[in-house]
Amino acid sequence: MTFPLARRRFDGVRASDALLTSVFFLLNRRYVIEDGECSHYMKNFDVGHVPLRLPSAKKLLGVIDRNFGTLAFCKRYLDRLGETRYSMALKNLCDNGIVQPYPPLCDVKGSYVAQYEHTILLKPSSGVEVLTRGEDY
Amino acid sequence: MTTTTTRAEDEGKDGARDVDASDALVEGVREMRVRDDDEDGGAENVGAENVGGENDAAAKKKKKKKKKKKAALTTTSKTYPGGKQTAPPSVPVRELFPDGAYPTGEILPHHDHNLWRETDEEKRELERLEENLYNEARQCAEVHREVRQYISEWVKPGMKYIDVCETLENSVRRLIEERGLEAGVAFPTGCSKNHIAAHWTPNGGCESVIDKDDVIKFDFGVQVKGRIIDCAFTKTFNDMYDPLLKAVNEATETGIKTAGIDVRLCDIGEAVQEVMESHTVEIHGKEYQVKCCSNLNGHSIDPYRIHAGKSVPIVRGGVQTKMEEGEYYAIETFGSTGRGCVHFERAFSLVFFSSISANYTRRKPSLVTLTVVFLVSGVFPGQLVAEIVHRTRYHSTARTSPGETSQCSRSLHWS
Q1: Do B251 and A116 touch (CB under 8 A)?
Q2: CA of A14 to nearest chain B CA: how many angstroms apart?
Q3: Distance (Å, rounded) from C-alpha B253 to C-alpha B259?
Q4: pLDDT tens for residues B305-323?
Q5: What distance in Å separates the CA atoms of residue B324 and residue B260, rounded to the nearest whole number?
Q6: Per-residue three-class SS string for chain A
Q7: ipTM field
Q8: SS3 B230
Q9: Are A110 and B195 within 8 A, CB to CB?
């Protein structure tokens, strides 16, 4: 079956194929993306000077250097600083290896993961100090 | 409290460590706080009596009981040397501790082979020199304690994730008195829910709402002069998850107890896994053995560097590197009812495609690869469909030109 509207091309992708492709594209998308959008980013600690071509990326790197340095940040923190339309620049920084994205880490769907964490300090003399110990945990 | 039971149990097991002293200390602190609360409740009660004046003894008793409970619940009832904290927290901890000395955390004594350190003059001097730095870390820890206490009581199903995160971060900023890189939030507030183990925080405009069955892992950090405090807890609104939380909490406690100077990292992983996987939990009527997320780790922390190079595994078979004196570690454990192994949410097919599109924009994955992707991930890649359609249609004709191919694969980019 052919679409009468589609221009018939001899050895190319037909409109019907493109349609099918995009339908499955959307299905895939819905299946996986859901919460999969990356939010965490951090500048690599050991990165030296990297020449950047994209002016917006240069500008964004300046903002990151001034506000976060090598601390981790998320897109909301950039919004808070008044940055807009930074996704292209951020992607460029990631592609250049200056900033590392940390996408969500997941177990299988339907499972439940719990976490507890403390920061400890190994003191030279008096023992291990559990800095974050509180009444709650 | 789960903490104490673990200690009591494990003490018998390894017997290497004498935790009684620290236990007594924590108990003492707790008692003191409870007494504080009592006093507050009592004072309020007296006031109420004077106003009313008609209550009989029984009613008084009842009232007193009620008040006490309430006093124990409200965040504001806790008194610090410099006053009280508000709810939501807004008083900088610097004002709550006017003398500038922040409370010390729980101190666990050294393992047997390191007991000489306690009396060694050189080591003691070393510690005295570093005391100022420790104090900064303790300030961060105090901020963390106060903020998390409020958040864990305040957060309720029906709230938006983004609102909870903003409140939390703003509280931290106020309490630590944010000043650029010198003091502030150390990393984005993680509030990963259910099957997401880590690294999830809402982006701007996110509309997700907390559900009453969600398991939320609040993971947030505070830093002063680069000294990062990393601490996390799990919040649920359903008793059904309590055994899971208990398992993970016990595992973390075990990890902390095993840690020490000259301890091999692999030994910590082994101890954690043993405790974690000894638990079974029943969730939604189905029984699971709790599994450690094998590819998640604790980590050492350096100034301005959250992951400083050493990883603390939570399963056996790790590296034999040793912990050293003066190091900061984030000891974290993850217990899961799933596979016990995490991956990026854009599972196989998508990770696969994005890596392909990033590196070889012009190359098209072969039919075999696509089929493998489908078999492994259970997701039917659109490209596979296109490919099959294409091959059946143009079986006899010439293959598509390279230009056409790249067009096809470009339509499948995942940016």
Answers
A1: yes
A2: 9
A3: 10
A4: 999 999 999 999 999 999 9
A5: 8
A6: CCCCCCCCCCCCCCHHHHHHHHHHHHHHHHHHCCCCCCCEEEECCCCCCCCCCCHHHHHHHHHHHHHCCCCEEEHHHHHHCCCCCCHHHHHHHHHCCCEEEECCEECCCCCCEEEEEEEEEEECCCEEEECCCCCCC
A7: 0.75
A8: strand
A9: yes
